[in-house]
């Protein structure tokens, strides 16, 4: 029997759930948020880069008390082979602005802070509470949840599913399919602690400045994947992730890749002498626009990673989670204000509002990119990075070989790896997917 009723139940206290619960509670709705972890953030893994703009829409003065690590002034992109990297670095003093645009954060600390804001807004937040199933009426309308607590049935007009990438509740209830293995990456991450001065000297940082590195190439052994190195105040977050389907196919292990990544000469120098204190593994939805499931139905909406809202090309996820959570809450509030029921027809407003936001516009723009990168993984993540490294060595090594001959050697090595039509085809496909 259902003991208690709420206007809305939010399942999950990650970025999406906290954004949704905060917005709903601030608008005066009776909100229950349920989180299976010991506290908000205890189960969550992120690199982690935080995007200010999306948080400002929820907590405009967050810089006053949020646990932020470093504001980012430098971004590096590396294309790696086994011994070298070819880099594109962008550093600007303009990022030393009064209201910096990107920060590094540590999710366990950040989510706790975020959750406190949700509680201050008036939501009831219950941690160490796992939602076991969605309660549905005879017509399939979601009318509440059953938790692992004693007498744990709770009713609500609407349930916001912010349960993260695996999204077991939604799939169990038949609201969407289990994400395909070729649309989900498994990432592993370690935290490397170093004295602050050492870290700042290695990355050329002053004060709270931060730098991040994103890396592709032979580190993923021909699989679709990426490595990352992010600077915190006194630690470096370092990790790598590849598609689950590729791990299955190749028999490679995430931990094996991480070890190799750490041993790469370009990386080893940055983490030398560090103390490793944490190790975590987590999934990331990477299927993009085509993998997005049904986002709403009778009595429910799905937000954040559970809705596969992740822009893998730009390495953005938490901001899409916060935005979808906020927009879902705003849609629910509008429906509630009109005293309309939380039917599928009415909750379509959430999708309409999301379509008008950067979330869907960006994901739609790159809709062909995940397929292309997966199908052409060997070329984009192995062959081309190796060729670029070869070309760079050849270009920079001064050994009396005439330059014209060097250029011919480079050109021939590209042709030996891929025919001219293959090269042009890849360039064309990449440009088309990027349009
Ligand atoms: C290694 C890694 C690096 C990343 N780096 C970045 C980055 O730098 N920047 C960025 O923007 N994004 C990054 N992301 C993506 C980002 O972490 C996610 O997009 C974001 O956390 C999604 O938020 P969410 O609230 O949807 O899901 P989550 O943060 O996963 O939260 C889901 C919550 O639901 C809870 N939950 C699940 N099931 C239940 C249940 N049945 N009952 C109760 N509670 C439940 C979980 O415990 C969890 O707290 C990264 C991800 C990974 C794995």
Automatic annotation (TrEMBL):
Residues 369-435 form the FixC-like C-terminal domain. Gene3D superfamilies: FAD/NAD(P)-binding domain (3.50.50.60). Coiled coil: none annotated. Keywords: FAD, Flavoprotein, Oxidoreductase. InterPro entries: FAD/NAD-bd_sf, FixC-like, FixC-like_C. Its cofactor is FAD. Belongs to the ETF-QO/FixC family. This is Protein FixC. It comes from Methylocystis rosea.
